[in-house]
């Protein structure tokens, strides 16, 4: 928009001030709880319950950090590694599987294609709580309950990723490129791996990021499947520690510190991969 | 699998199949077609294997379990038998006041949460799109930040902000001589709404903002030339143009809201107001893993599934009907 048009659109000064105040208040609403988490993580247990949040006299950030990794024989470190394994490996593998399927949906013709795609879309709708009991029974039949795989395999399934994959394949991989590869005598799968996958890169990263968030957030499935604390992801571990906190308050500072650390990987991923997920949101929502 | 069976496709109509010029003729074309179907099969098999094992079979199992039950033989002796009980489990679920109470709670939660979320996110997106907001990139990032906070941790943060003694919010109110119990009888649902709103407001705002950015500038310029003020432009020109994303966001918000589990589960550790069967999802968890009543849990799952599908279908139908009415 040119400058002249914008000036026509601009409301009067009062309107501008109101708009800015509303947006500023909304930003405060979203930021202050996170800021509280940061400030509270530097408090020891007594200060958490008594003192002024902003006073630095009882600064015990490092002590809390040490306590966190020492608590229950360093269980938190294990949980963190577990979460990273579930989320990073799961999202990487899941994104590859979903995008390959979405690509095939866009580039090939076969019978019942749209019916199958409808099934994929229907799977997006089904609540996870509905699947949990049958999955638990199946896992226990297969002897997988309370193992890494009981959580890892179900989280690979990402029907929304297939939907996004199809959209990205249509947008990023022109059919002419595939035809040219066929004329050159390249095999279909070779073309996919060498040519198409490279073009699908940004889409792949978007699906990866969506799935990373979902798996890092996952709480219900591990809760159903796992009883061995050593296999817990951070979310379930913190839930458990928080339930102990009402009885033994020494858990409060470590739960707060643990929460702060658990937020970091996703923030890091979102900041580093910002330009990818923005395009992904647009593709997924505007259509 | 369906994908590997040769498809009957008119040769000329095939967009993807183009035989190499050196090897033309129907035979070479068929071979190319077969190669493509094989490739499609290879690319789709991993996903559909997952779809069958972690989606279709579990849904089928849930439906099956809801019609069968383990009956203890008389006096508790002898082997357990699995017997067909028809709709008995459904009758048990649908007459259970705790399940119906859970449905009511989720209905109330949806009625407060979904309008607040959709209107709030859209309003913020329109404000950011109006071009008068300072530090727009910072505002967007700040609003989006809670999306990077896992649900259980969002619930933890807010639980502490609701807890007297820890919370600076309650302290602040106390200085003004106001006592608030965020986890009381009437406040517990709004408190949960607040957690969900905080987590997802910025995410949905970004979706709306992206859609608004795609609105052609000429349309907006035309409305300005027609003398529409910025408020009218936002409400009567821009908003109708992003209908599609409003529908998408509403449906996804609805599906997520119906699954309500994480937040009340965490808050139940500290609030007696939240029972172990507070929402349908918590009811399912309680029935399956505390009471070990699989058929009851399965029946409740199927009821929740049917509600989800019916409501999402209803939203889609409702919006497409109003669409066609507007077109007339």
Task: Describe the secondary structure blueprint for this structure.
The complex is a heterodimer of chains A (287) and B (328).
Chain A: H1 3-9, H2 13-40, H3 45-50, H4 61-70, H5 75-107, H6 113-125, H7 128-141, H8 148-155, H9 159-172, H10 175-183, H11 188-199, H12 201-217, H13 220-225, H14 234-245, H15 251-272, H16 274-286
Chain B: H1 26-67, E1 68-71, E2 81-84, H2 88-94, H3 97-129, H4 136-144, H5 151-162, H6 168-175, H7 188-213, H8 217-225, H9 230-241, H10 243-258, H11 262-267, H12 280-290, H13 294-327
Explain this structure to me?
Chain A: The chain crosses the membrane at residues 21-42, 84-105, 117-137, 143-164, 204-226, 251-273. Chain A has 287 residues and is an all-alpha fold. Chain A folds into two domains: 3-61, no CATH class; 66-286, Orthogonal Bundle (MetI-like fold), CATH 1.10.3720.10. Helices cover 78% and strands 0% of the residues of chain A. Chain A has helices spanning 3-9, 13-40, 45-50, 61-70, 75-107, 113-125, 128-141, 148-155, 159-172, 175-183, 188-199, 201-217, 220-225, 234-245, 251-272, 274-286. The relative contact order of chain A is 0.13. Mean pLDDT of chain A is 84; it is low at 1-5. Chain B is mainly α and 328 residues long. Chain B folds into two domains: 2-84, no CATH class; 89-327, MetI-like fold. Chain B has a two-stranded antiparallel ribbon. The longest helix of chain B is centred in the N-terminal third of the chain and has 42 residues, at 26-67. The radius of gyration of chain B is 27 Å and the shape is flat. At the A-B interface, helix 1, helix 2, helix 5, helix 6 and helix 7 of A face helix 1, helix 3, helix 4, helix 5 and helix 7 of B.
